[in-house]
Design goal:
Strand content of chain C: under 5%
Largest sheet of chain B: 7 strands, mixed
Distance between the termini of chain C: 11 Å
Radius of gyration of chain B: 25 Å
Oligomer: heterotrimer
Shape of chain C: elongated
Chains: A mainly alpha, B alpha+beta, C mainly alpha
Number of helices of chain B: 18
Helix content of chain C: over 70%
Number of strands of chain B: 19
Number of strands of chain C: 0
Largest sheet of chain C: none
Order of helices and strands of chain C: HHHHHHHHHHHHH
Strand content of chain B: 15-25%
Shape of chain B: globular
Largest interface: A-B, 21 and 32 residues
Structural class of chain B: alpha+beta
Number of helices of chain C: 13
Amino acid sequence: MYYFEPVTGFMLIDSLLSGQEGAFKSALSHLILPTVVLGTIPLAVIARQTRSAMLEVLGEDYIRTARAKGLPPSRVIGLHALRNAMIPVITVIGLQVGVLFAGAILTETIFSWPGVGKWMVDSIFRRDYTSVQGGLLLIAVIIMIVNLFVDLLYGLINPRIRHTE
Amino acid sequence: MTPMKRKLLAAVCGASLLFAGAATVQAKTLVFCSEGSPEGFNPAFYTAGTTFDASSRAIFNRLVEFERGTTKIGPALAEKWEVSDDQLEYTFHLRKGVKFHTTKEFQPTRDFNADDVVFSFKRQLDKEHPFHGVTEGAEYEYFNGMSMPDLLKDVVKVDDYTVKFLLNRPEAPMIANLGMDFASIHSKEYADKMMAAGIPAAIDQKPVGTGPFQLVAYQKDAVIRYKAHPDYWDGKAAIDDLVFAITPDPSVRYQKLKAGECHVMPYPNPADLEAMATDPDVNLLQQEGLNVGYLAYNTQVAPFDNPKVRKALNMAINKEAILDAVFQGAGKVAKNPIPPTIWSYNEAVEDDPYDPEGAKAMLEAEGVSGLEMKVWAMPVQRPYNPNARRMAELMQADFAAIGVDAEIVSYEWGEYLDRSKDKNRDGAVLLGWTGDNGDPDNFLAVLLGCDAVGGSNRANWCYEPFNDLIMKAKVVSDVDERTKLYEQAQVVFKEQAPWATIAHSVVYKPIRKEVVDFKIDPFGGHIFYGVDLK
Amino acid sequence: MTEALYDQELDSREVGRIALLKEFWAYFSENRGAVIGLFFFIAIIIIAVFADFIAPHLPNQQFRDAFLQPPFWQEGGSLKFPLGTDAVGRDILSRLIHGARYSLFIGCVVVTVALVFGVILGLIAGFFRGRTDTIIMRLMDIILSFPSLLLALVLVAILGPSLINAMIAIAIVQQPHYVRLTRAAVMGEMNKDYVTAARVIGVRRMRLMFVTILPNCMAPLIVQAALSFSTAILDAAALGFLGMGAQPPTPEWGTMLAEAREFILRAWWVVTLPGCAILLTVLAINLMGDGLRDALDPKLKRS
């Protein structure tokens, strides 16, 4: 059992800052299972979305051009195709944040992690409406910010979006 | 950005220093996977065992204390005491050289003395006391529940190391009462200092006591950290650091215990006991609990005001099945409202037989048919009832067999306790009690006395002959005579059947093999002074 | 495409319908997963309808001499309880069979409620536009900005935990999807010639909305309904798991799962089997939904 002062509130960072041997490893190993559980559902959704987007993009002419130029397939797929297929995928990733929070409620309950999800459930059971309101607001704001960020990313990925007014 | 960076840098430096320090001495850290967050750190405000574990049992001392692992009372902050012949005056001679904790906020300049005792009790007793209401919304629940405001006339300082308690009437279990958690001794000097600083409520949030451990840090729902009090009057604790890792889920607690992330865990899943018993890393301690689980009818509402109806329902309950399914065999069928480990337990009382046919006939004879009732099941696991919902489901089926239609209701735990006190409550409520001073009075008067109707007497049962017996037993000091009175009271209880007594559970404490000298506290607490690690 | 179908329908409705169904089945059966899903789903419906005859025992009957009996293939199990018993001696197979009823019931009620209200709101928003549209859509955006489970949880906390309230909460949470879909489809249809024609003829507003436009927007709605059927079952199970849905002893799968959690080490079947039931049902419905989308959604139709 390691103990370190919460400096940033992020367990991984704090465990590194604490300088205790093994603390980081311990923190990391405790994150594996919840992460896998929480990540599986978005993983499936994102994988499906990427597949369909890639299929669409790979049929485009410029991909054929790139192939004809003799570029290695890894470059064609990894750079030319993926970048253009990312737009719908990123949209889906942004939408998954909401799903993630909903999943966190269950995951944190099962793993007894004192996170936002568990806090919300506990406050609901306690009829602590002030906490519930605050928590809901916080989550809604986070989701909105993430989606704003996603919108900004569009421009970063696709110059056409960046330059159109 | 810059201040942030500086902070980080400072943290890194501080951490490396810490690391250097830690490398030289191996501190002994005991981790206790506790079942929930404490409600606060002033034990006088609360009644939950979880809170007492985190506050009174680690941070504070009382004038008298129970010997660890027993129900025997012995000296603590008071070295000896005298009782006057009329039993109205208790004189305590206090221990000298007892030091309070030194914390960031408070450096004590004097040892513990009579002022602290007077302060600790006057604060609860005297509504005009400057500290009576400093913490908003807090009530001295236990103090009031024990009818201390009526009982206690005054607490007087005689000299620095002598205190007198003046009573309004004799109270046989008085000394045992003073060993209970609400009677913990706080520091007056600290209180005064905080009052002067304008933050008097701090004494309830950052507690300072004389106990074996002092609070270092608390993160709600995550962890409580203590370190050993270096100048503890009875010698420094064998472990250096005590950590409460708050883990509400019993299966997770067991996983942590197995992984060596905690050394002691409370309230195991009955379903896991088998695995624990064969686990090479785990010692499974067990002890018959000082508790009783019951179903309290509301005896003021028809048809449950009729003892025969209550008796019939009791006869319909298959307690053996409950013991199997809910306790997984870790318990004993209860026939009396007090557990067999307490003195004055009446062996001669006969339990109601399990007889659905007889119960049906009895209901018919009373002219009750098509009875519909509610059974309240609490949402949490308690030592006297590992799974109330499951118990309620079993009862539901049992009642259905005699033509009684039962509906199960449940509320959040705090709400449950609150709503079940209502005198007009609709339905019978599942609840239980773990004794906290080892006196039969603590069960019979608190749970079934007339004074407690609308409070801890969830059956709302006020029956003169019974109440007379327990009131008489309260003022008599001769133990034999008290035993007789209590035995008689149990007979009356059984005839009137305000409860269905269900079970006395066996308390299990899984601890890791390297934990030395951990003892199960009969009062359901967890005490880590005197515990060591191999 | 739609216009062509519309004409066809005018010519001879009977023939048109059959042709439509045939086309639909041709597309649908191309997807083998969807067909398997469909058959599985039909099997579940049959099981749910005839639960009383199929289940070997009553779902709430407690066998006091058989607590936590393992399934028949394990040592100590018997064919009397093919999938074992739970902590109070109830037959798990019977509970799962009766639980199918609850799950389908939840799915149907939630989808119906969400569909009806969602379609009405979406039609209004798409038809009238302007301020009405803005108000409705902003309201839906607000609902959508919360994680659905969390919002449902809060709603149930306010309404009080019970199966009915859980269904209402889930329906409220799902309805914005229908509103948005309907609105988008209606706006697409509004500019089409047949709508203008119907207006010119002087069709009344209500008839225009519900009889002329709505049937042409149904394809995406049907797909969404199929997919949200499974979401509803999952959400209800999650609420039950958190103790906010169906109350014991109701044999609802999520509630069964939550009640059995403590036995994960000692009696795997009590925990695993309800989980499997949820998994398989939702999987079947999702496969079926995918097939429906392939067959109905013109955008994804292979030409």
